[in-house]
Amino acid sequence: MPTQEMRALWHPTRARIVELLKAGPIARSRLTESVGAPYAEVAYHCRALIRSRCIRFAPGYTAESVDPVYQSA
User: Of 31, 55, 70, 73, which has the fewest Cβ atoms less than 10 A away?
Assistant: First the structure.
């Protein structure tokens, strides 16, 4: 695993998000409920995971989507 991905997964919330997405695409609002963190915090961690290429937007969704859906990379 590249170093950038390892650093991204260091945070427990990020590791949990990646683990949840292994089951399939999930909307950010649903991730917020599952992780038990505020919406803004989940958004922050998802942006970091996208930058490190650990996750990506599901087809049809972008950063500008109201409630984006993410999937495993």
Answer: 73
Contacts of 65 (CB under 8 A, 6+ apart): 57
- Say what the pTM is: 0.87
Q: Which amino acid is at 62?
A: T
Q: In degrees, to the nearest 5, what angle opens at C-alpha 39 toward C-alphas 12 and 19?
A: 35
68 phi, psi to nearest 5 deg: -60, 150
pLDDT at residue number 11: 87
Please give the C-alpha separations between residue 66 and each of 24, 27, 61, 62, in angstroms, as whole numbers: 19, 10, 9, 9
